[in-house]
Specification:
heterodimer; A: Rossmann fold; OB fold (Dihydrolipoamide Acetyltransferase, E2P); six-stranded mixed beta sheet; 9 helices; elongated; B: about 300 residues; mainly alpha; MetI-like fold; 13 helices
Chain lengths: ~375, ~300
């Protein structure tokens, strides 16, 4: 096991700079997830750590040792690929034993390790099968088995679950996390699926356009996004963002969005007229049916919206509504009978409002 | 009779007709090889099966037997040549040596080049591929004169090695193109996985990727073999004494007549090695060996 340190790492393809002087520290035994949309450079970064891409400038260090010029085969890493990349002509046993055969490990040790890995991964009865005789999930397990038998310093996963169906993905997610807890090997995991990132990571690193936007524990990132991009990227359904202007002053200041007045946290002060992005997560909008009482009383902190779509997921109901012409999503655990076109009231939980600068999009 | 059954019958009927069209010339050719000359040339009717089969043509061309007089070629005005002129054994051996060697050379050289072209990116790799392919744009007749002189000066004319080199050169572009496409089918992640597992680039090629495309290699080898086995023009110009089967057969057409019996016997016999070669590799002639390596 090793710690991984990335410092001032840069990657260029000709004139195009795809990674911009990145810094990242992965402590020994940690599970970190590189998360970002397609083309953000997360896979490139992983491949540079693996030694499959050259480094333009900067350093990659394993336990303080510079790895830039060390060949992939000498880095003692193991990598699991999105498309499994199994050796199709070899049985499961040979796939797993391949690296040890290259190292000229003795047969007894090879057998022990393969049996150990196969028992961990539940592949005992498939050892003599060819990859084509296995299901997607089993193939992915073989790929993981091939990685763990090597006792690597660092595990690298490049979107390993993207090709699996939804149910299997959830199952494999747990298996990978379980495996990490057992082996405690430093792991760098790339995904574009924020649920995977949230559920598996010790630390999530969010990337965009070759920059690291934010890193932290999943809950830190969820609760305190640094900027609008992170706020919207993490969370499903994503955070509601309303473009507003601050009206009033001091304790009486409110955010106004197309005529709708939204409450602002009392402890903060804002300059009148400044533009802000008002963010609120769907679960922090309390839904209630619009009754005659509400109508007449005109509850100050509730917003009137029109239901567009209702999506029951089982544990909760996602309600997509229209608020002053903007789409807004709210989640409730109550069994509300809502119909499209129905008027509802949404009450934002003021303590969970996220505010971002209208120009820089950074958190206020 | 329901329509699906009718369709099946029609499908079979059409298949039989199409197969018949393709097989008939070969069958007729093979049949001719066992006909006595009187059945080959019958002025009154077409002799199909009602003849006394004779293996005399094979005895002369394949076993090196003496040409018998009861063939009565002379009475039909057929040409006669010297002793052993119809012995095809040497030609078959030469053809085998040349075809097997050039197939081996073209396939193995192309394998290495194709792997490099598929996996490594270098300046002008795309243009290089086109350039290689352009070597096949010229028909062999266009290069035959300089080739004859070059081979003569190098002492390669009328040698097995000379023809092997010529056939290898002609086969390389096609073999390269084919093999590159097979390598391209194997995802590059497989190589990368092997390298991370500790393999060198050559071990990646030899232990991992090559076994995954052996079907493609077999297909390429078959194409190279068939080309070399049937190639006529280069063999004709580059040899005098070494005669490959196609060239040898043309010597049975003389100024005084064509030895149809011998032509068909040697021709039929010449089908066999290619047939055996294809039988040997046909198990590998299946795609899908890469199945299971990646998500399908």
């Amino acid at each position: 096991m090793a710690s991984v340190k990335i410092s001032n790492l840069q990657k260029r393809y000709g004139n195009i700079e795809v990674l911009h002087e990145l810094d990242l520290d992965v402590a020994d035994g940690r599970f970190i997830v590189l998360l970002g949309p397609s083309g953000c450079g997360k896979s490139t970064l992983l491949r540079m750590i693996a030694g499959l891409e050259s480094v333009t400038s900067g350093d990659i260090l394993f336990d303080g040792k510079r790895m830039n010029d060390v060949h992939a085969k000498d880095r003692n890493i193991a990598m699991v690929f999105q498309n499994y990349a199994l050796y199709a002509h070899m049985s499961v046993r040979k796939n797993m034993a391949f690296s040890m055969r290259l190292n000229k490990t003795d047969k007894k040790t090879i057998d022990e390790k393969v049996n150990w890995a196969s028992s961990i991964l539940g592949l005992d009865e498939y050892l003599d099968r060819l990859p084509k005789e296995l299901s997607g999930g089993q193939r992915q397990r073989v790929a993981m088995g091939r990685a763990i038998v090597r006792d690597p310093e660092v595990f690298l996963f490049d979107e390993p679950l993207s090709n699996l169906d939804a149910k299997l993905r959830v199952q494999m997610r747990t298996e990978i996390k379980d495996l990490h807890q057992r082996l405690n090997t430093t792991t760098v995991y790339v995904t574009h699926d924020q649920i995977e990132a949230m559920t598996m990571a010790d630390e999530v690193v969010i990337m965009r356009d070759g920059y690291i936007e934010q890193s932290g524990t999943p809950m830190e990132i969820y609760d305190h996004p640094n900027n609008l991009f992170v706020a919207q990227f993490i969370g499903s359904p994503s955070m509601n963002i309303l473009e507003c202007e601050v009206a009033g002053q001091g304790a009486s200041s409110v955010a106004v969005c197309k005529g709708v007045t939204l409450p602002l946290p009392l402890e903060r002060s804002f300059s009148t007229g400044s533009k802000i992005h008002y963010g609120i997560r769907p679960e922090h909008l309390q839904i209630s049916k619009k009754s005659a009482m509400h109508d007449s009383a005109g509850d100050q902190s509730s917003l009137s919206a029109t239901v567009r779509v209702v999506e029951p997921t089982g544990p909760e109901i996602h309600v997509y509504a229209s608020l002053a012409g903007q789409d807004i999503c709210a989640i409730t655990r109550e069994r509300l009978e809502l119909q499209p076109g129905e008027e509802i009231l949404l009450r934002p939980d003021i303590s969970h409002v996220h505010l971002f600068d209208g120009e820089t999009s950074n958190a206020l | 009779m329901n329509s699906s059954r009718l369709k099946t019958i029609l499908r079979y009927l059409v298949s039989i007709i199409i197969i018949g069209i393709f097989v008939f010339p070969i069958a007729w050719f093979a049949l001719t090889s066992v006909k006595p000359i009187s059945a080959v040339f019958n002025k009154d009717r077409v002799v199909v099966f009602d003849f006394e089969p004779t293996f005399d043509n094979y005895r002369v061309t394949i076993l090196g037997g003496k040409k018998s007089d009861n063939n009565a070629n002379s009475s039909l005005g057929m040409g006669t040549s010297g002793e052993g002129a119809y012995d095809g054994r040497g030609s078959i051996l030469s053809s085998l040596i040349i075809a097997v060697s050039s197939t081996f050379l073209a396939t193995s050289l192309s394998l290495l080049a194709a792997y490099a072209l598929s996996r490594l990116s270098f300046r002008g790799s795309q243009g290089y591929m086109h350039w290689v392919l352009s070597q096949r744009f010229l028909p062999p007749i266009a290069i035959i004169v300089p080739l004859v002189f070059i081979f003569r000066d190098l002492g390669l004319r009328d040698t097995h090695l000379g023809i092997i080199i010529a056939h290898t050169l002609i086969n390389i572009p096609i073999a390269l193109l084919l093999l590159k496409s097979f390598f391209d089918d194997v995802p590059v992640e497989v190589d990368q996985a092997a390298m991370i597992d500790g393999a060198t680039r050559f071990q990646c090629f030899y232990l991992v990727v090559l076994p995954m495309i052996k079907g493609g290699v077999a297909a390429t080898a078959v194409l190279c073999f068939i080309f070399s086995w049937t190639e006529f023009l280069l063999s004709l110009f580059l040899t005098n004494s070494i005669r490959t089967v196609p060239v040898k057969i043309t010597t049975f057409v003389t100024s005084t007549g064509s030895e149809w019996g011998y032509i068909s016997a040697l021709g039929t016999a010449a089908i066999i090695p290619g047939f055996i070669f294809i039988l040997l590799v046909q198990n590998h002639l299946v795609r899908g060996l890469t199945m299971g390596a990646i998500k399908d």
